[in-house]
Structures are given as structure tokens and as C-alpha cells.
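Researcher: Good morning. I'm working through a list of sequences from a screen, and I'd like to move beyond sequence-only analysis. For each chain I'm collecting a predicted structure so we can compare shapes side by side. This is the next one on the list. No need for commentary yet; just the structure.
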Amino acid sequence: VQLQASGGGLVQAGDSLRLSCAASGRTSSTSGYTVGWFRQAPGKEREFVATIRWNSHTYYSDSVKGRFTMSRDNAKNTVSLQMNSLEPEDTAVYYCAASRTVILSNIRNARGYDWWGQGTLVTVSS
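Model: Good morning. C-alpha cells for this chain:
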């Protein structure tokens, strides 16, 4: 599975962005996969942002809960992350990742995911 993240950009605090993660390859359907978003700010470790499981249940980090929303379109093999009320602290490279086997207790752990996209930069100015 190849993942392509897109949608990043430079915005002001309070603005919105929508990131997309498109799957392609021999097994390109996103159905049956858990797809997560992680981010890494300069000088910091990669951290969990949100994930959507194969059953479309979503989970969010406390820092983005209520502001970010994940959704999936299996017909288009894409997963989206709608980011509202962006803050300068949201500035980071955002990565999408996928797994068919990650268990619920491990969804916030980057090591639980098998495939990764290349990342898209989100910069939020104050």
C-alpha cells in the first residue's frame, strides 16, 4: 500500500485546513484498514493526532479533540482530516499511516502502523 498525504499549507491561527490521505497500490482500498494521522514538529517526537478504524470509529488526541475530525471515503480510497480552529501549536509535518492489524490499545503508537505516507507540512502563524 502506498499512501499520499496532501493538503498542507500556511494558514493563520483560527483558520481551517483539510488534509487527505490517498491509498494506491496493489491493495489500494482503505476499507478494512485503520488509518491514522501523526505529526512531528521541529525538535519534537512524532505524536499521535487521530485515527479511524476499519469500522469508522474515530479516536483523537486530547490536544485536537473537538477541533479535528477524521472521515473516510472507501469508494475513493481516501481518508481526510478536517482541521478547524488551528493554533500555532499545530504546526508540524503531518503523516498518514495505515495498518490492517493494529489493535485498539495500540492505535496511538506509531509502531503499530505498517505503511506511511511522505508527510505534508502544516504551518499555522499567530
